[in-house]
Amino acid sequence: MAPGAQFAAKRLGKELTKISKGLPAGIVLVQGDNFEEWLLDIQVLDSNPLYMGQTYRLKFKFGSSYPIEPPEVVFVKLPDRPIPIHPHIYSNGIICLDLLGQQGWSPVQNVESVCMSLQSMLTGNTKNERPPGDEEFVRGNRLRPKDIDFYYHDNNV
Amino acid sequence: MPPLNAPEEGVPAAGLASWQQDNSSTSYASYAPNMLSELPELGPLPETPTSSPPAPGPLLSPPASFMRTTRPRRFSNISISSVAATVGSETQSACVGSTRDLTGRSPVLLINYQELQYESEVDKSLECPICRTPFHAPITTKPCGHTFCSECLLRAHQLRPVCPIDRRPLDVERDFCKARVIHDQLDRLRVKCPSQGCGHVCARELLAVHYERYCEYTPVLCPDNSCDLWIARQDAAPDKGCLHKYTPCQYCSKQVMKAGLEEHYDRECSGNTVKCAQCDSSVVQHRMENHVANDCPSTVVLCKWNKYGCGKSAPRHDVQAHEKKPCIYQAIGRLAQDREDDRLIISELKVRLSAAEGRLRVAEQEKTERRERKRRQAGNTNNTMPPFVPDLNLSNSPRAAASYNNGTLDSPEDYMLAQFERMETQMEDLRKNIHELDGLHSMRLLNDTMRLNEQIAELGSKVGVIGMHTTWLMNVQRQSRGQQRAGGVVGSPLSSLASSSGGPGTTNSATGSVTNAARNAPDNEGGRYYNSSLPLRRNSDGRGENPPRL
Ligand SMILES: [Zn+2]
Ligand SMILES: [Zn+2]
Ligand SMILES: [Zn+2]
Ligand SMILES: [Zn+2]
Ligand SMILES: [Zn+2]
Ligand SMILES: [Zn+2]
Ligand SMILES: [Zn+2]
C-alpha cells in the first residue's frame, strides 16, 4: 500500500458519506464502491441546445495522493452516453480544464465540485466544435490525461 | 498493568498486528502511524501515484509501509523543522512517539488522528478542507487566514507552495502559525479510543494519555524480542510469550492466532453457541457473561446519566431509547463530564509538577552538600567567609541561578532546572486555558441572552408601533365623526388629509394662504375661519396624518 493511500481512502470515504446525503441536481453517482475509480453521470440543466436532453458519463480515477494530487477525470463514451461537444473536450473524452491539471488543482476541491465545474463549463459554451487538432491528438495520444501538458489558452470558456 | 518487556534499542518499532488481518481495511487504518511525528522523515511525494488497490497485506508479513527501522527521535518536537515547532505544544501532548521514551515504556503504535471516531457529529467549521476530518494540530496561514491540519497543509505545500484555497504563495517559515482560537473546541471534542476493543470515550485532549498509559487495548510491541508484531497491551505479558502463533479454537477447531482468539469468538466462531435466556439471541458460550453485562437488550440497566440525577432503570433497549430522546439530565451530565476532564488534566499536571519539585529538591540538596565540601576543602585558609546560602528563588530566574554558579553546575542540575521550568510553563498554560475556557463559556451565555434581549426589544418596539397605529386610527375615526357631526362644512376629512400629506413645506405655504385668506376676507364668520385652519393644527404635531411605518 502506498503511504498516502490511507489518506486518499479516508478522504474518499468522507466524500462518499456526504454524497449519500445528496448531490446537486444533474449529478448522479453511478459507481463508487472502491477508492480507485468512480463513475458519475452529469446533465446540463439549462436549455443549452448543444447539450439538451443528454447525459454524460464521467470517470474519476484517484491516485494514492488524492486529494493532494488531482484525480484523472475523463468523459466515457457509451451507446447512450456521448462525449459532449466542446472546444476543450477532445473526442476521446479527455478534458482540457486547468482545474484538473497539476497547476490548477487544489486539495480543497472534491468530486462534487469538479462535476459542478464541468457542468458550468458546458452550460456556458455556445461553440459547436472540438479543440483545434482534435483528430491528430486523438490518433496520436498515448499519454495519460494528467501527463499531458495542456496549454490553457482560454480560461473563460 | 503487567510489567512490560522493554525492547532494546534498534528493535524495529513498528509493524502491523497480523491478528487484524481478517478485518476490513479500516482496521489497519486505526493502526496507521501518526503522520505528523514522521513529518521530517517524509520523502518527497511520489510523482505518479500508483493506481493499485489498497489490498490487504499478506497473512504474516505486515505491509512495508508500517515497518519502521529506527525508533522515533527522542525529542521529535525539537529536532524537526520549524513548522512542527510552531505546533509544538500540541505535538507534544498528542503525539505518543515523543513521550514514550521519556516514560521508559514499551513502544506503542501512534494514534492516527484522521481515523478517530467522534462521539457526535463534529461542527463543519472544525473540519479541515483537505482531509475533511476535524483538525489535528491546526495551523493557520497568516496572509489569508485559512486553517488546515498541519499534516495536510504541509503535504499540499510540498507539492505546490501556495494556499490550497486561494492559491496565495506561502512560505513555511514566515506564513504559518498555530491556530489558537479553535484549540479549545478541538480539545473538547469527545472521541472514541482508537484501540480495538476499548470503548473508552474522552475529550480529545486526554486521548493521548489514556491511549499511551492506561488503555489495556493499545497495541504495543510483542514481548517476544524475535517478533515485531503488535499486540494489545493486556496480552503483552512476558510470561504469555508471543501470541502470534496459531492454535486450534476449542469450539470450532479452526486454526486461529492466539492473540485473535477473542476476536474469533466474537465474530466468526460458529461452534458451541448457546441461547441467551433473556433475549433469545444465540451467543458463543465463551461470551455469555459479557453479552449479559454489555450487550443483551433485556438486561436491566441504569441511564448513563444516573450519576447526575436521572433515575431511569429499565431493560437496555428502553434505556437506550430514553438516552437518545435525549435524557433531560444529558446537559448537566455533559457539563459535569467536562469538569471532570478538566480536573483530570489538572491533577495530572499537579502530579508531574510535584514529582519535578521533589527531584529538584534532591538535586539542590546534593548541590549544597557538594558546595559545602568544596568550601571546606579549599576554605581552610579563609575561615571568615560566611556559609553559602543557595539562591532558592530558582523558579523565577533559573538561568540567573545557573550563571551565578558560573558553570560549576553539571548536567543533572541543569536538566532538573529545565524540567522545572517546563512544568512551570505548563502550569501557566493550563491556568491560561482554564481562564480562556471560562471566558468562552460566559461569552456563549452572554451571546445567547443578548439574542433574547434583542428579540424582546424588537417585540417591544413592534407593540409600540401597533399602539401608535391604533391611536392614529382612532384619531382619524374620531375626527371624521366630529366633522360629519359639524356637517356640510368646507374642509372634508379627505381634503384635509390630502393637503397635509405634503409635509412641513406645505404647512408653511398653507399658513401663508390661510393668513392671506384671513386678510382678504376679514368679515368672514368665525366658525368658518376656525374650520379651515383645522388641518394646520394637526399637521404641526409632527406625527401628521401618515401612519408610522412598521
Ligand atoms: Zn488562503
Ligand atoms: Zn486535515
Ligand atoms: Zn482505550
Ligand atoms: Zn509476537
Ligand atoms: Zn471457533
Ligand atoms: Zn441476551
Ligand atoms: Zn436518563
UniProtKB/TrEMBL annotation, chain A:
Domain of life: Eukaryota
Alphabetic keyword roster: Ubl conjugation pathway
Keyword hit for Amino-acid biosynthesis: no
InterPro entries associated with the record: Ub_conjugating_enzyme, UBC, UBQ-conjugating_enzyme/RWD
Bilayer-crossing regions: none
Domain UBC core: 7-157
SUPFAM superfamilies noted in UniProt: UBC-like (SSF54495)
Pfam families: UQ_con
Protein name (record): Ubiquitin-conjugating enzyme
From TrEMBL, chain B:
SUPFAM superfamilies assigned: RING/U-box
Molecular functions (GO terms): zinc ion binding
Feature: compositional bias, Low complexity: 36-50, 483-501
SMART domains referenced in this protein's UniProt entry, alphabetically: RING
Keyword field: Metal-binding, Zinc, Zinc-finger
Compositional bias of kind Pro residues: 51-61
Domain called RING-type: residue spans: 128-167
Polar residues composition-biased segments: 18-29, 506-518
Start and end residues of each TRAF-type domain: 264-320
Composition bias, Basic and acidic residues: 538-550
Region annotation Disordered: where it falls in the sequence: 1-67, 363-394, 483-550
One Pfam family recorded for the sequence: zf-C3HC4_2
Zn-finger (TRAF-type) residues: 264-320
Name of the protein described by the UniProt record: Ubiquitin fusion degradation protein
Natural source organism: Lasiosphaeria hispida
